[in-house]
Design goal:
The structure is a homodimer. In chain A, about 45% of the residues lie in helices and about 20% in strands. The first copy, chain A, is an alpha/beta fold. The first copy, chain A, has a domain at about 5-35 and about 95-200: Rossmann fold (3-Layer(aba) Sandwich), CATH 3.40.50. The first copy, chain A, is globular, with a radius of gyration of 18 Å. The interface between A and B is large, with 37 and 37 residues.
Chain lengths: ~200, ~200
């Protein structure tokens, strides 16, 4: 009886630190992989097919939409972006946990297309700290910062659509919490049906 | 904003090892306490009020039933046994996680009276191993062993009524899984309402 992996969807406002958490998780845990998105935008220099993105033509992308092969997708500035379902399912069937770092709209789509996923929302410890993190990047104008702050504030309302909420105060602590969530989710009664039946059959 | 504790209900067939797991959890984690049952049976030598049991008269026990102060209760061989709700709630309000090691009938009652609890079912790794554990006690007759085995087999059907199922193959591993479940449950979105509202209000 082969153990199946989990699909872990991680979202949160810009500046909450979800990207850093995901990178750290993969570094520490060999059984976790990060989902690679598909896009119709042209590859940039140094971008590698299957590593940074799967690069599809618009025709291919539309074909995959028709085949229902996206867990979620969206058109942004004229280009399509999406999460190929078959690639994620392949990993899960092979026992790997797959992380999908995805925006809130995408996460809500996945809740429809793959409700078995584990949905984690990462939050900043305070709006003050969020502002510090966004401004410390030093790349954004005052307007952009304000826009990001407003967007983050609005996005906090979606936290309750998720299974778990992590306040990202300390990276190490946050990664440990995600690890614990994975262990706990792997022991949910609904995922143990096969093994219980097996023990009974002996 | 004070963090509230969790009520963790642990059940499983005789021989699954739930008692050992509970003892080990309390030993390792200062924030966990074990719930003390109330009973109308007479105290035995060395039994201490409030440690082994709360010893109630039948009148007191009936009064508490009327006041709806039991998370669960049952009459066994003419004596009442029950879990006093107010004692558990006090601990939880003080931020302590409370473990309730309880039989399946009791656990199902708690699911009704306190659905916010976390329900964990502990299983033996195999029926073979269960038989070994039950026989190795050396105290039971062949009939009693057979009865226990049949009862355990029947009880496995209730595993799906629980949130989590732990196959107790290795004590250390099982305790770590319960620890992870506690961390995960403490980060459930439904338990983070207050803190999210607070961050937004800043």
């Amino acid at each position: 009886m082969k153990k199946k992996g989990l699909a872990i969807v991680i979202s949160g406002p810009s500046g909450a630190g979800k990207g850093t958490i995901c990178k750290e998780l993969v570094k520490r845990n060999k059984n976790i992989s990060i989902s690679v998105s598909a896009t119709t935008r042209k590859p940039r220099k140094n971008e590698v097919e299957g590593k940074n993105y799967y690069f599809y033509s618009e025709e291919e992308f539309n074909e995959k939409i028709k085949e229902n092969d996206f867990l979620e997708y969206a058109k942004v500035y004229g280009n399509y972006y999406g999460t190929p379902k078959s690639k994620v399912i392949d990993e899960i069937e092979n026992g790997k946990d797959v992380i999908l770092e995805i925006d809130i709209q995408g996460a809500l789509q996945i809740k429809e297309s793959y409700p078995k996923g584990v949905f984690i929302f990462v939050m900043p410890p305070s709006m003050e700290e969020l502002r510090n993190r966004i401004t410390s990047r030093g790349t954004d104008s005052r307007e952009v910062i304000l826009e990001r702050m407003e967007c983050a504030y609005h996005e906090l309302n979606y936290a309750f659509k998720y299974d778990y909420v992590i306040i990202n105060d300390d990276l190490d602590e946050a990664v440990k919490i995600v690890d614990s969530i994975l262990i706990a989710e792997n022991h949910r009664a609904i995922r143990k049906k096969d093994i219980i039946e097996k023990i009974k059959e002996e």
